[in-house]
Fold each of these.
Amino acid sequence: MNHKALTKTHLKLLTDIFPGQSMTVQPAEMLIYGTDAGKRFSMPQAVVRPERTEQVQELMRMAQQERIPVVTRARGTNVVSACVPHQGGIVLSCLQMNKILSINSDDFTAHVQPGVVTHDLQQEVLKKGLLYPPDPASKKFCTIGGNIATNAGGMSAVKYGVTKDYVLGLEAVLPGGEIIKTGGRLHKNVVGYDLTKLLTGSEGSLGVIVKACLKLLPVPEASASILVCFENEAHALQGVMAVFRAGILPCAMEFMPKEVMQCLSEYGPVPWPEKAAACLIIRLDGSAACLEQEITKLRSALQDVLYFDMAMGEDEEHIWEIRRLINPASFKLGPDKVSDDVVVPRGEILRAIKGIRTIGKKFGLKILAFGHIGDGNIHVNFMHDKSIEGEQQKVSSAREEVLRLVLSLEGSISGEHGVGLSKKAYLSWQLRDKELQIMRDIKKVFDPYNILNPGTGV
Ligand SMILES: Cc1cc2nc3c(=O)[nH]c(=O)nc-3n(C[C@H](O)[C@H](O)[C@H](O)COP(=O)(O)OP(=O)(O)OC[C@H]3O[C@@H](n4cnc5c(N)ncnc54)[C@H](O)[C@@H]3O)c2cc1C
């Protein structure tokens, strides 16, 4: 349901808080703020671009008093329509709050505003020999605030964890305008409930993050990437288990089944022999001496290998280029794509991949399932052509079967992308009434009048 029109008084208040270019109600300018990578659209009633925390506070004070929805957004790269203002209201863009405030090499911390682009922060800390590990594939164009609000993960999650593992403290403005400060420069802190973790992954529904203190690590001395191909999936999966059992914790471990390899080979030249039907891309890092030992261990742990290629340092990129080509190559199978990012326990991956293949056959759909095998996170891409009658319905039925399959394997319907509007209908498939009720009660404590990102997430 759309929020009623903003009054002249509202607009006057907004222009007082956001002078000049920091606010707009021009439809042409607001168009882009009505959508995100989830592709739904709804026109905002106003867009504001604060530069200071006080502006966010004043906005939230007014919005709560007047019961106007506020939808916080950054780069809009989330794929679940988590920042589409589908009930109207004001879109708050955090992109003008984009400063790296400090990098502290003694604490191994960085203080940042939410609109800093993730890759920019990584490059800045690298200059001081420090590492900010979370690495969503979108890192060159998404922000720290968006990453915190979605608890973004990436390929290196298997060793380094996800965004929540690097958020030490937050400052957030609540509906009503009050600021809360959680955590701080501390690497350990067990006083009270962990509000930092609660805000992390809350998809903008509890408060507007205006500052974050992030944990940094030392940069590892050396790294190596390995492409290893097998004759069948069972061998590849045995390889995964063998690597972990050998005591190796890779910083990335990606899996590609035969459908993906075939799609890549139709797209361009590939290095593996024709017989190869599954492959792993593994990245190791650490001290040069440890790395050498781990490579030796890994070589002896992997059995039934058809093809092996290894690169170190800057040369590693040619191996990862193969992984990056999956997205463009996938469109050879169909002009349209619906993607899910399900997770299963690592021991259930083979069952999940086979089950997804069976569902694809049942619906006559081309489904590419591949991904972060090290942490059980599988990207499921339903390739189709929506101009063909009935195709979209087939995708949505197949998608529901995949989600049910994953839940039957004790998995989760999302490992990275979150709930937003896209997965809301399936929440009760995974969470029981009591858990959902607790989450909704928490939302009421933070946002009693449901003005922040209303209707998305839980
Ligand atoms: C090509 C591509 C690759 C991707 N790869 C990955 C991946 O590997 N891993 C992964 O996890 N995701 C991935 N994503 C999804 C997306 O990039 C992440 O969800 C990212 O964290 C969103 O960041 P953003 O700056 O674009 O935030 P937005 O999309 O603008 O916002 C995302 C959510 O955060 C909230 N939000 C934003 N800023 C704030 C703030 N300051 N305070 C409170 N709430 C806020 C919004 O309300 C919304 O709910 C990918 C997306 C694309 C398009």
Amino acid sequence: MDRRKTSRRDFLGLGVAAMAASACGGCSLLGSRKPDAVVPEEAGVLRLGEADSSALLGSQTSLLVTAKDGNEKILVVHRDDGSLFAVSSACTHRGCDVGYDKKLGHLRCPCHGSQYGLGGDNIKGPAKKPLKRYSVTTDNGRVVITL
Ligand code: FES
């Protein structure tokens, strides 16, 4: 086998892989997060467990939740003033999971920098559509999301 040809082929292969990774720029596979909590849905409602509710209402500022049989992830944010917000975590640009940026005070996508208000409204692109918002309340110390 010609050692020089193999090296060149390997080099070209690495170049193509690097270009593909660069073009992706942090697409959904890289920006996808595993949910913090998987919750059974009951009549269109997700009721977080005691431990997750306690953590979220305590010192934890956000939780990524999904219904046991669902594929949509919901980001629930608890602010210091006690307010709760719940939105679909899928960025409307290319689907990466957005996160709560406490320093900014709103949601930010790690892939291409889109920003959203806590109600899902667009603040900064490239995403142009808002995130879906969900109703979220508390009931006897448990966080309840209505789908
Ligand atoms: S996936 Fe591109 S900004 Fe969110």
